[in-house]
Amino acid sequence: MTSIRSGNLPWLLTALFVGVGVVRAQAGLADIFQLRSGGQLRGQQEARTESGDYVIRTLQGARVTLSKSQIQRIVREDDRLREYNARYRAIPDTAPAHRQLAEWCKQQGLKQQAAHHLQRVIELDPEDEAARRSLGYQRVGKQWLTRAQMMAARGMYFYQGTYRTAKDIALRKQARQREEGALEWHKNIKRWLSWLTNRRGTRAAEAHQQLASIHDPLATPALIKFLNIQDDPQIRGLLISILAQIADPLARGKLIDLSLVDPDPETRLQCLEYLLKSKRPLRLSPYVQALHHGDNGIVNRAGVALREIGDPGAISPLIDALVTTHKFKVSEGSSGQMNASMSSSSAGGGGGGFSFGGGGPKIEKRSLQNMDVHRALVRLAEGQDFGYDRAAWRHWLINRRMQAQVGARRDD
């Protein structure tokens, strides 16, 4: 029998016996000798030498000698496992013997060991129906299949506690990878931003370089989060420029929002400029929707954007938004001074309004002419101008479309 003197080969023990979980072996579980080196050895103690060393027979049959100084702790197996190991060593390798030992293991509550012997039973006797059913097999035609095999035949695989399709598993793995990637970016960006704001500034240049090199869409959520809580104009500008270089719908959507609602005019125009310079065409829909916003200022900002985009498809919604009606809170005794905009709707005229409500602040509706919407309309109409007369603009648009249709028929 092989004998190893471990005092001369501590590295060999570590390589062979390091582990943290339950080691499966033919002889089952045994005493655990936890080593000071961080590994562990499983086996039966056979003797103690005069010097106090432990002579151990491993589950693989080798003999190893450990000095007392090498052992951190010994975890003894319980009586059931001792008896199990004794029974296991004594039985012949036959189906009836393994079947009998499996039954004993069940009675002792040793489920893993019982499953091991039932598996050996069906290896020796493939037609043992009781053993197969105990292990979860089901007969399908002439075959015995496990639940996993049956589900695999249906294209279902066990993942995260249940059976799922391969497509679902792939999507979940991708989502997990995205989540892990986003968390890693959040950690890195937070660290780099702290370098930028560090008073010593020793790593500011490195932080700026790291931030400016970001192109990964997975970084977008973290960039937006830090942008939302950032007050420093320079750092905000840096974060916005990073978003502008990322090919990601979420980053693009944030720039659109900022171009409409950011309180700083320069930031709004910068975001719009980034969007217009992008290789991807800028969609009209976010700005067309903003033409119906309750804030009259945002309505006009949408007009500015649509003018710069220059798409004639915006002409009709711009006509509708030439004059919009907004609700304002008016303090009592303020001679109609407006305090805050509340909501918006299109209106067919200019000026005027009415108020309603009892005592205290009143809600007043006012129709407002939108100058930037008008400017956008004039540019898209190539200089044609009907002022704020929506009916005249609508009549002109209908005639223009009819002429275009006639021209198209002539070309055919």
The percent of residues in helical segments reads: 40-55%
Query: What share of the residues does DSSP label as strand, in percent?
Result: 15-25%
Specify the biggest β-sheet.
6 strands, mixed
Q: Would you tell me the structural class of the helices and strands? A: alpha+beta
Our count of helices gives 17
Rg, alpha carbons: 39 Å
User: What would the principal axes of the Cα set say about the shape?
Assistant: elongated
Mean pLDDT: 85
Number of strands: 14
Low-confidence stretches: 1-28, 348-354
Instruction: State the distance separating the first and last CA atoms.
Output: 97 Å
Could you please describe the fold and organization of this structure?
This protein is an alpha+beta fold. Among the domains are: 3-77, SH3 type barrels (Roll); 94-154, no CATH class; 312-412, no CATH class. Helix content is 50%, strand content 18%. It has helices at residues 10-17, 79-90, 95-108, 111-124, 129-134, 147-153, 166-197, 204-212, 220-228, 233-244, 249-261, 265-277, 285-290, 296-309, 315-320, 371-380, 390-411; strands spanning 3-5, 31-35, 40-48, 54-58, 63-66, 71-75, 138-140, 143-145, 156-159, 162-165, 323-330, 338-346, 353-356, 362-369. A six-stranded mixed beta sheet has the order 1-5-4-3-2-6. A four-stranded antiparallel beta sheet has the order 12-11-14-13, with no helix packed on it. A hairpin with a 5-residue loop joins strand 3 and strand 4. Helix 9 runs antiparallel to helix 10 (233-244) and helix 10 runs parallel beside helix 12. The longest helix has 32 residues, at 166-197. Mean pLDDT is 85; it is low at 1-28 and 348-354.
